[in-house]
Amino acid sequence: MEKRLKQVLNNEYGNYILPFYWQHGEDEATLRLGMEKIHASGIGAVCIESRPHPDFLGDKWWHDMDIIMDEARKRNMKVWVLDDSHFPSGFANGAVKDHPEAAKKYLTHYCIDEIGPMEKASFMIRIDEGEKLLAVVAGKRDRKNRFSITEPTDLTRLVTGNILYWDVPEGFWCITVIKTTNKGMGRPNYINPIDENAVKLLIDTVYEAHYEHYRDDFGKTFAGFFSDEPELGNAAGGKYGHRATIGSYDLTLSWSNELEKRLIDLWKSDYGVKLASLWHEIDTISPDARYDYMDLVTQLYDRCFCSQIGDWCREHGVEYIGHVIEDGNCHSATGLGTGH
Q: Contact, 193 vs 88, CB < 8 A?
């Protein structure tokens, strides 16, 4: 403690704060004055708040960044950059519009109710352009709980083309059609954070561009990048807010090709039924299936998003920091959070 007090009294302490330095395209004199005032306050670093800037990654952006970097070098300050042009991180400065393969993919479903017995029944399966059928599962409706089904059975093998052929047994049945889609509750034109190639689009667009301009400053004046509240993003607030809980009857869920492979390997012949249990209450099946899904989504977010970005930063001598949302128990749900 005595050593720390002496360091403070002798102005030998380090820097412990990096305020957002908001950018709106100001003139050179204003930018230099801002850096001067921040430094005069005893602050040794800034995080460049990119989102209000009118020309992120354009000529005006690099002009303004050059001025800030010049001031930072002269004052021995560190510069961090917020890594996108829109909130939250993951917009990739609009690059998804030209790379639709990087956009979010969702898992969704719809139900067909039927009363049996009915022999040689047929049902049209609705699969729109860009969608993929994953499974068709039937279960008996619980008249006391509209979210519950019993006696689940996978009917996927009975689908030919876009028609399900099935001899409906006696009872009140719910036929659940499960498919992937590009239409969901998330923000449009955002990368899929559980797809490695999609996240690479963010790195190639934003991170590589800054390295190209300031590679000699990386690990010195240029300290690193800041992500602001990136999210799984299958539901962007709205109806579900902070509680995009697996099991919500009309919630679109995060999806990727890698997640599909992992769930098939894990669930094997139970794949279809366990997919259905992500929305339906199926006794003894739903809790474990939802846990499996959340665990794999979290692992993929870890590997594809934060670890891939972190690895890139380490390889280039800078750091990766930021905010994630955990309030409102976001860590136990999908949507605005990043998994558990």
A: no
